Amino acid sequence: MPLIMYAATGASQLKVERMRAFGAQVRLHGKDFDAAKAEARCFVTAAADRNGEHLFVKDGLEIKIIEGHGTIAMEMIEGASRTGIHLDAVVVPLGNGALLNGVAQWMKATSLATRSIGVCADGAPSTRDSWRRGRHSVPILYQCRDDRRRYCNPDADFGGGGGHV
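and the corresponding structure tokens:
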């Protein structure tokens, strides 16, 4: 199955090269992650209209991806154990929560005394802002290149972040 990934035009060149090295077709669009994700949703919707079913995968809600994130914690625990180090805490970058979720689940299962701490970058505060407001604070209206405006209910339109369109 061909894999098409969307990234912002300013995405890390190293990340883009690694995605391509694994066989993905990478399409760069927009100034940030949200713009690239909105374009991906537009592509999936338009492609489904043309030739059938396509799959939109959002990493924060796909359990297999979150499990994969847990392998980072597994490697940290194994490395610390080999060197006789106890991990008091692990600090994890927080975007949509998938990475922290995977790492924290593994830590909770294998190293109860280790705290998992999520941190947000100043330049990407949407998760922090949502947490402070007690609700999701990212707009659900997005605009496609064909100038059509679409509203997205992620649970209904994209199966909770991943699903068939």
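(Above: one complete record from the training split.) Strands lie at 4-7, 25-28, 55-56, 89-93, 115-119, 141-143, 149-151, 163-164.
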